[in-house]
Amino acid sequence: MSTENKLARKKRMNQKIAFGIFTAISYSIVALLFVILAFIVIKGIGVISWEFITAMPSNGMTEGGIFPAIVGTLCLVFASMIFAFPVGVFAAIYMNEYVKDGWIKKIIKQMTNNLAGVPSIVFGLFGMSLFVNKLGFGDSILAGGLTLGLLVLPVVIRTTEESLKAVDSTFRQASLGLGASKWQTTSKVVLPIAFPNIITGLILSIGRVSGETAPILFTVAAYFLPKLPSSIFDQAMALPYHLYVIATSGTNIEKSRAMAYGTALILIIIVLISNLLANALRKYFGKKVKMN
Amino acid sequence: MASHFEIELDKLKNVIVKIGNLAESQLSEAVKALLSEPMAEKKEVKRTEEKIDKLDVKIDEICQTIFALQQPVASDLRFIMASMQISNEIERIGDLAISVIKNSKNIKDKHDLIVKFNVAELAKQVEEITLKMNQCFLDRSETTIGEIFVLNNSIKKGTDDTIHNLMNEMKSNSKAVVSGMNLVMVLKHLERISEHCTNIAEHVHFMIKAKIIKHEKFDDKQ
Amino acid sequence: MHKIESRNVNFFYGENQALYDISLSMKENTVTALIGPSGCGKSTYLRLLNRMNDLIDNTRMEGNILIDQNDIYEKSTNVDDLRKNVGMVFQKPNPFPKSIFENVAYGLRVNGIDDKHVIEERVITSIEQVALWDEVKDKLKKSAFELSGGQQQRLCIARALAIQPSVLLMDEPTSALDPISTSKIEELIHELKNQYTIVIVTHNMQQAARVSDNTAFFYMGKLIECDKTKTIFTKPAIQQTEDYITGRFG
Fold first, then answer.
1. B contacts of C186 (beta carbons < 8 Å)
2. Which residue of chain C has the CA closest to B68?
3. Residue C215 in 3-state DSSP?
4. Where are the alpha helices (DSSP H) in B140-212?
5. By the 8 A CB rule, do B66 and B72 touch?
6. Are A141 and C40 in contact (CB under 8 A)?
7. Which chain A residues touch C159 with a CB distance below 8 Å?
8. Residue-level pLDDT at B217
9. pTM to 2 decimals?
C-alpha cells in the first residue's frame, strides 16, 4: 500500500516539476518578447508623430521624418512578393503534385533547403553581381526586390509545400475519380483548401523581407534620397538600413538616437500590421473552406 | 415506402396465406366426401395437393434465404421461425384431408352412421377451426387464438365420445365394422387436423408474444 | 456479354504482388460485393476498375480489364473519360469544401458542361436520386460540411451520379456511418441497381448478403470463389469460403 502511495507521489512530483519547467520557459519567452517590445516602444514612442511618419528627413537626418524609408520598405516588400509568391507557390505545386517520388525530387528538395540556409549577405552579393551589374538594373528597387525575393523563395516554397501536403489525399482522389485532370484538381480543390496555410507562409515572408538589411545594402538602399522613388529602376531608402545609418553613421548620432528607436518601432508596427492583415485574410478564406 | 426487406417479408406472408387457403379448400373437399356431398374432381384434388407440397418447399427456401441474407432479429426473426413451422403444419393438414377422402370412400352405410353419430356437426367444427387458424395468422389476435384452443377442446371431446360410441356400435353390430373402422380413422384424422390448427395458433402466439407455449397444458394456456 | 470483365489480372506494388490471376465478370445492372479479410486485395482490385491505382507510383498491372468490351488499360484509353463512366464513392465521406450545390456540380463543370440549366437540372436530379432532396432543398448554397455523415455520403453518391456514369464503385461506403445511415444507403443501392452496375467492397459480410446479387470472396490476393450471393451464403462451394463466412477464420 505505502509503496503505491510513494510511487504515485513521485509521479505527481515529476509531473509538477516538468510542467513547472515548461511553464517557466514559455512565460520567460513571452516576457522576453515583451521586454524587447517595451524597450523599443519606450525609447521610440517619443519620436512618433504624424510628421515623423510623413515627412522627409531633414537637417542631416537628425530631424524630420522617415517617410521615404517607409515607402521604400513597402515597395521592396511588394516587389519581392510579386516575384517570390507566384514562383514559390507554383514551384511547390510542381514539387508536391506533379513530380514522382525519386532521386530528382530528393535533390530538388535538398537544394531548396540549402538555399534557405544561405546567409543573407551572400544573397546581397549575388544580387549585386547579377541584377545590379550583369543585367544592368543598377541599384534599384527592381534589383533589391528580386534579391529579397530569392532570399525568401525557399520559405514560400517550404510553407506552400507543407500546406499542400496537409490537404487530405481523399479530396484529390474524389476529384480525379470524377474525371477531372490533375490541374483542375489542383486549382479547384487542393489550392482552395491549402490557401489559408499558404497565406501564413506569406506572413512569414513579409516579416522576413521587411527586416532584411544585408541584401539591400548592395542592391538598392540609399543613404539619403531627396525625392521618393518614381520607378522600379530608382534607388530607395529602407527602414532597416535607415535604422543602421542613423544609429551608427549619421551626422549627429546622439541627437538622432531617438529617431533610430522610432524607426525600429515603425518597422515592428509594419510587420505587426501585415501579420494582422494576413491573419484576417486567412480567417476569411478559412471560413470559406471550413473543415468539419 | 416499404424497404427491400419488408417487401420480402410481405411476399412470405402472402405465400403462407395461399397455402393456408389451399389447405382449407382441401379440407372442405374432404368434408364433402365424408358427408356424401358432390365434390371436385379427383384431378383437382391431386393438383391442390401438389400445390400445397410445392408451396411448403418454397416457404422453406424463402425462409432459409431470408435467414442467410437478411439476418432478421426480434419480431422478424420470430415471424420467419413461425412461418417455417406453420407451413409444415399446414402441409400435414393437407395430407390428412387426403386421408379423410380415402377413408371416406370405404364407409358403406355412411348415411346411417354419420347421421346416427352426428358426425356432420364435428366436421363443421373442424372446418371452423381451420378457418380460424387462417384468420389468426392474418389478424394475430389473441382472442382468435383463445377461440381456437376452446374449439380444439370441444372437438377433442366430441371425437372421443363419438369414437367411444362407434366402438360400442361395432361391438354389437359386426356388419358395421368395416365402415365403422374407417369412420374411426376419419375421426382420428379430423382430430389431428384440429391439433395442427392448435399448433399453428401456438406458433402465432410465439410470433406475437415471444413466449413459447408448446407442450403446455390447456389450463396454463388460458 | 458482361459489363465488366477481368482476365488473368495480376497486380504489383513494386516487388510485392497484391493480386494473383484474377478473372471475374460482372453483368450489367447487378450489384457485386467483394468480401474478404483486411489486406486481401479487394480494394486494390476495385481501384483497378477506374484506374485509381495509376496514382500510386511504382505499380504494375498485368492482364486485361474490359468495360463495355473495351480494354481500359490500352494506351489509347482516355483515363478522364473512363472515370466519367466509372464513378467512385469512398469509405469516408469526402465532399469538397464547397456548397452542396457546387459539390454535385463539380463533376459536370470539370467535364466541360457549363450550361447553367443543364447543370441545375442534373444536380437536382442526382440529389433526388439519392433521396436527399427534401433534406437539402432549402440549403443548396450552404457548405456541404453542415450535413451529417450519412447525408454527406449520399451527397458524394449524388456527386458521382451527376456525370451519369454507367458503373458505380463503392469502397466500404458505409463503414464510417451509423446504422440508420447505413440502411438508408443500402436501400439506395437496391434502387440504383436498376440503372447502374455496382461493385461494392465491404468488410461487413452481412451487408454483402443484404445488398448484392453476386459475391466474390478474396483471400491473400486470390479470388477464392464468386457466385450468386444466395449460394455463397447458403452453400458455398469452397471450404475456405465457408470458413470465412461462418467466422471460423479471418
1. 4
2. C233
3. strand
4. 142-172, 177-209
5. yes
6. no
7. 174, 178
8. 56
9. 0.82
Q: Name the DSSP class of C55.
A: G
CA distance B41 to B53: 19
Cα within 13 Å of Cα(A95), Cβ side = 27
Architecture of domain B4-221: Up-down Bundle (1.20)
Instruction: Render pLDDT for A185-239 as a digit per residue (tens, 0 to 9).
Output: 999 999 999 988 898 888 888 888 888 888 888 888 777 777 787 887 888 888 8
Distance between C59 CA and the closest CA of chain A, angstroms: 12
The CATH superfamily holding the domain C4-245 is: P-loop containing nucleotide triphosphate hydrolases (3.40.50.300)
Q: Which residue of B has its CA nearest to C208?
A: B69
Domain boundaries, chain B: 4-221
Q: Give the per-residue pLDDT at A292.
A: 38
Whole-angstrom Cα distance, residue C140 to residue C133? 9
Q: Quote the minimal CA–CA distance from C212 to chain B in Å.
A: 9
Give the Cα separation of A278 and C74 in Å (integer). Answer: 49
The beta-carbon neighbor of A180 closest among C88, C92, C110 is: C110
Q: Using CB atoms, which residue from C190, C210, C234 is nearest to B70?
A: C210
Question: How far apart are alpha carbons C123 and C161 in whole angstroms?
Answer: 9
Q: Which residues of C touch B65 (CB under 8 A)?
A: 230, 234
3-state secondary structure of C26: strand
User: According to the model, what pLDDT value does residue B204 have?
Assistant: 94
Q: What is the DSSP letter of A186?
A: I
Residue A290 has a pLDDT of 59
**Which of C39, C47, C23 has its CA nearest to residue C219?**
C39
Residue identified by cell 474525371 is A179
CB C4 within 8 A of CB C31: no
Per-residue pLDDT at A60 = 66
DSSP A241-272: HHHHIIIIISSSHHHHHHHHHHHHHHHHHHHH
Question: Which among C183, C190, C233 is the nearest to B69, CB-wise?
Answer: C233
CATH of A50-288, one of 2.60.40.420, 3.30.1060.10, 1.10.10.10, 1.10.3720.10: 1.10.3720.10
Q: Are C67 and A188 in contact (CB under 8 A)?
A: no
Residue with cell 356400435: B169
Q: Is B64 within 8 Å of C234 when comparing Cβ atoms?
A: yes
Q: Domains of chain A: which residue ranges? A: 2-47, 50-288
Cβ contact C210–B68 (<8 Å): no
B70 touches chain C (CB under 8 A): yes
| β-bridge partners, C143 | C99
**CB atoms closer than 10 angstroms to residue B106:** 14
A87 in helix, strand or coil?
helix
Which residue, C58, C160, C151, is CA-closest to C105? C160
Q: Which residues of C touch A290 (CB under 8 A)?
A: 97, 143, 145
Q: Given a cut of 70, is residue C220 above it in pLDDT?
A: yes
% of chain A surpassing 70 pLDDT: 95
Where does the pLDDT of residue C26 fall: very low under 50, low under 70, confident under 90, or very high at 90 and above? very high
Q: C115 touching B, CB under 8 A? A: no
User: What secondary structure does DSSP assign to A82-125, as a single string?
Assistant: HHHHHHHHHHHHIIIIISPSSHHHHHHHHHHHHHHHS-HHHHHH
Do C229 and B3 lie within an 8 Å CB cutoff?
no
Asked whether the beta carbons of B33 and B101 are under 8 A apart, the reply is: yes
Name the residue facing C234 among B5, B68, B70 (closest C-beta): B68
* C-alpha cell at position A133: 551589374
Average pLDDT over residues B118-129: 92
> How many residues make up chain C in this entry?
250
